[in-house]
Design goal:
The protein is mainly alpha-helical. The chain has 5 helices and no strands.
């Protein structure tokens, strides 16, 4: 999903003045590890606990999804969190 969407949205985000590192972190969070329908962690858990239905696994992931939404909101409100280490490297 990242391979398809990043070439479309990256030039737009850069023309709007967003930092490319910040955009990359936000993109990975949005399309990343927990978010359905491609949440990789969900499929890892399904591979380990094969007798547990996917609906139960997604219900179990729900608190972590809300925590990720809070984290995402903080990163949007305070982009300095994402850019702290890259700016320290200069």
């Amino acid at each position: 999903m990242l391979v398809v969407t990043i070439p479309i949205f990256y030039p737009t985000m850069m023309s709007l003045g967003f930092d490319p590192i910040w955009f990359g972190v936000i993109a990975v969070i949005l399309m990343g590890m927990i978010t359905p329908p491609v949440g990789m962690n969900v499929f890892v858990v399904k591979g380990i606990a094969q007798d547990v239905p996917m609906s139960t696994i997604f219900k179990g992931v729900l608190p972590f999804w809300f925590a990720m939404v809070v984290c995402l909101m903080l990163l949007v409100i305070f982009p300095q969190i994402v850019l702290f280490i890259p700016q320290a490297m200069y």
